[in-house]
Amino acid sequence: MKLVAEWADLSQDEVELLKDLGNLSRDVATSMVENVIGGMTYPFSIATNFRINSKDYLIPMVIEEPSVIAAASNAAKMMREGAGIIAKASEQLMIGQVHLVKVSNPYVKAGIVIERKNEILEYANQQGVLVKHGGGARDLSVRVIEGTPIGNVLIVHLVVDVKDAMGANAVNTIVEAVAPLLEKMTGGEARLRILSNYAVYRLVRAWGKVCAEELGGGEVAKGIYEASVLAELDPFRAVTHNKGIMNGVIAVALATAQDHRAIEAGAHAYASRSGSYKPLSIWRLDEGGELYGYLEMPLQVGVVGGATRVHPVARIALKILGVKTAKELAEVMAAVGLAQNLAALRALVVEGIQKGHMKLHAKNLAIMAGATGDLIDKVANEMIKAGKIRFDYAVELVEKLRMQQ
Ligand code: NAD
Questions:
Q1: Which of 351, 377, 395 is the endpoint of a domain?
Q2: Annotated active-site residue in 88, 117, 243, 268
Q3: Is residue 77 annotated as a catalytic residue, yes or no?
């Protein structure tokens, strides 16, 4: 901290602020990552109105972007009817990869690996990882790539049931242990031995409906349907469509201390599985004017392991959610993603996204410009009234209004 403070010429006040670890103890913070000099607190919020698989949930969300929590709560209210949003997750299957190089006659070797599948799975499960929790290696497949710049490559995929863990460490332990056995069987040399974050067997599907009146009329429902089709046609739009979904998914991931990079990497790869980038959700109208949304994405999340039980606030978040399994957490996150998506599309159709967003943005600008207390709302309102939601104007207003106080 001393070096950084000197390097960046930090004031004593800045040093004190940065040193504040918030709701983390020093021991926990330094056990999580390296070179810790301080903490950074994000707001922890609750999205309301969620009814998922006939059960009511309060949704903890950690995010820096205004409007997300209000939007999620609003859309969840529209989708509460009946059982609410339905979400179903598959088994929690991850892929562990072993890349073998210098393999002669790779298709022959691939056959040998397939033939000896049971032996390999048994060996993998003897490692003692996951088995006592009901998980472990379940299946195996092989891919061959001939004549690459590094010769023939044989890729072995182990499909591992990781139960309630995100599973990266567990899968890595298993593939590292199995690699020497595969080297022996194939005569090749193992290179990379790690999970794939392209979790194509760990999918969650969420769907729900909303009637046109809830949305503000048939025109709005039709507009959302059209927005869905445009995302299905246009990858540039699809990326932004999916970003809206991830606003919800990642906010819950942050609150529960998930590996959100893994979730993002997997989600966007899955969106591209057809060879062109597609939306993770689609919206359709039925004859009665009801709007149906359907979302499908991979989610690699855990309720044990990683930071989920280390960060005390993540433990509280899981308690608020009341989820006991990784499967249920994935279902909740997918439902939040779907609701978030509906809210964003509705806002785009109804009023253009800027209006609601800019109100909160104006407040942020006011704070950045030095406003405190009552002045925050006063400055924000002035900016909105003048249609000038800009930092330089916020600074000007803070100065002006402060003089009048
Ligand atoms: P982990 O090893 O901390 O926890 C998993 C372990 O928890 C299991 O091996 C098992 O022994 C135990 N466990 C207890 N109850 C269980 C239950 N009901 N179901 C399953 N396991 C149970 O963590 P992990 O989930 O294997 O790995 C997650 C961590 O790995 C994250 O911190 C992630 O950031 C990190 N990581 C990610 C990548 C990647 O995504 N590419 C690579 C390396 C590490």
A1: 351
A2: 243
A3: no
Residue 39 domain-assigned (yes or no): no
Q: Is 56 a catalytic residue?
A: no
Same-domain status, 329 and 190: no
pLDDT tens track for 204-218: 999 999 999 999 889
Range of the domain at 140: 93-196
Asked, for residue 38, whether it belongs to a domain, the answer is no
Task: Report the pLDDT value the prediction gives residue 361, as an integer from 0 to 100.
Answer: 84
Given a contact cutoff of 8 angstroms between Cβ atoms, the answer to whether 167 and 95 are in contact is: no
285 neighbors 378 (Cβ within 8 angstroms)? no
Q: To which residue do tokens 């949003």 refer? A: 85
Residue 174: what pLDDT? 97
Residue 262 CB–ligand 1 contact under 6 Å: yes
> Residues 341-366: pLDDT tens digits?
999 999 999 876 456 667 788 888 99
Residue of the CA atom closest to atom 4 of ligand 1: 305
The whole model's pTM is what?
A: 0.90
- The mean predicted confidence, pLDDT, of the chain is 95
Q: How far is the CA of 304 from the centre of ligand 1 (A)?
A: 7
